[in-house]
User: Which sequence fits this backbone?
């Protein structure tokens, strides 16, 4: 199948499919005219890529994990994969903690600002930038 059909069948843009090829996630054959030709397994591969992206994995980790995934996006034991997944989970935990701290600071700032306004109905005027 050509790239347009793969895009239609997976709901993924042709641009993204070309990107997946560029980063080594998809490996289509090339026809004599230069067109990309995908086999039927490409549909399942793109679906697994999309699921792994939705799980928060960057493409560099997906490149390592993808050969070890099954149709159900389960991961079979492959060297280094479990460590890569644990590292990604740690990174997500760190980001989550950073976001929680930023949210807390913003919430306290809003509360302090509102308290300084007292009982006044006036609110500071904000402008869109």
Assistant:
């Amino acid at each position: 199948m050509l790239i347009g059909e793969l895009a239609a069948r997976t709901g993924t843009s042709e641009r993204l499919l070309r990107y997946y090829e560029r980063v080594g996630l998809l490996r289509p054959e090339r026809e004599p005219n230069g067109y990309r030709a995908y086999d039927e397994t490409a549909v399942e591969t793109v679906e697994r890529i999309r699921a792994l992206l939705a799980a928060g994995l960057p493409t560099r980790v997906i490149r390592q994990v993808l050969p070890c995934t099954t149709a159900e996006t389960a991961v079979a034991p492959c060297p280094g994969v479990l460590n890569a997944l644990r590292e990604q989970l740690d990174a997500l935990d760190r980001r989550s903690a950073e976001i929680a701290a930023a949210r807390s600071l913003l919430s306290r700032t809003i509360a302090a600002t509102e308290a300084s306004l007292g009982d006044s109905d006036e609110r500071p005027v904000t402008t869109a930038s």
Q: What stands out?
A: The longest helix spans residues 81-117. The mean pLDDT is 87. The chain has one domain: 3-116. The CA atoms of residues 68 and 77 lie 7 Å apart.
